[in-house]
Design a protein that fits this description.
Blueprint (H helix, E strand, L loop, with lengths): L2 E5 L1 H8 L6 H12 L5 E6 H13 L4 H12 L4 E4 L3 H10 L11 H12 L3 E4 L2 H7 L6 E3 L14 H12 L6
Parallel strand pairs: 1-2, 1-4, 2-3, 4-5
Helix pairs in contact: 1-2, 1-3
């Protein structure tokens, strides 16, 4: 059985942009996931592609470089682009009827979290707000950096992510 890890926009952007403050953390984690590629499927919802492309363009990265990086990502054997299926939102709305924090999220974050929950995936993010709002409903969301970019100490959850992935895979991960 395969295990799912969902990368949100902030994570994908950090992997692709060497100038991103989280680049080093994201690349480290992404390489570790690739070491388990025969057992781990990386999910990237369509909305993540749109958000990431727009953000990378705003950061001054050329269209050709962005396209090249996304094609390389999509051609990895364990990466799947997940189209948005509207019926997922209905299921999630039913589950979240009492979670006001989650309902304060941006629509794109709601969709990303929804896909992660639908696949029972671990979600990787560098968005502290999203992590805080999703965690009460889906505790398999991780802020995997020790960087404090907004003055709010949050704590690096890389060890928790790795430990949870080991449990899900039923074995020690070689990193």
């Amino acid at each position: 059985m395969k295990h799912f890890v969902l990368e949100d926009s902030s994570f994908v952007i950090a992997v692709m942009d060497p100038g991103d403050v989280f680049h080093r953390d994201a690349v480290f984690i992404f390489k570790k996931i690739l070491e388990c590629k025969d057992r781990v499927i990386v999910l990237i919802p369509s909305v993540v592609f749109f958000e990431s492309i727009v953000t990378l363009i705003r950061k001054g990265i050329s269209h050709s470089e962005i396209e090249d990086k996304f094609w390389k990502l999509l051609h990895l054997s364990n990466v799947i682009n997940v189209p948005i299926i509207e019926t997922m939102a209905f299921k999630l709305c039913k589950r979240l009827s009492g979670n006001s924090d989650f309902l304060q999220m941006k629509t794109s974050d709601f969709v990303i979290a929804n896909v992660g929950m639908e696949f029972d995936a671990q979600i990787l993010t560098f968005d502290k707000g999203m992590r805080k709002r999703v965690f009460p409903t889906h505790n398999e969301i991780y802020y995997c950096s020790s960087l404090d970019t907004d003055g709010e100490s949050f704590g690096d959850e890389t060890s928790r992510f790795i430990s949870d992935m080991e449990i899900a895979l039923g074995e020690d991960i070689p990193f």
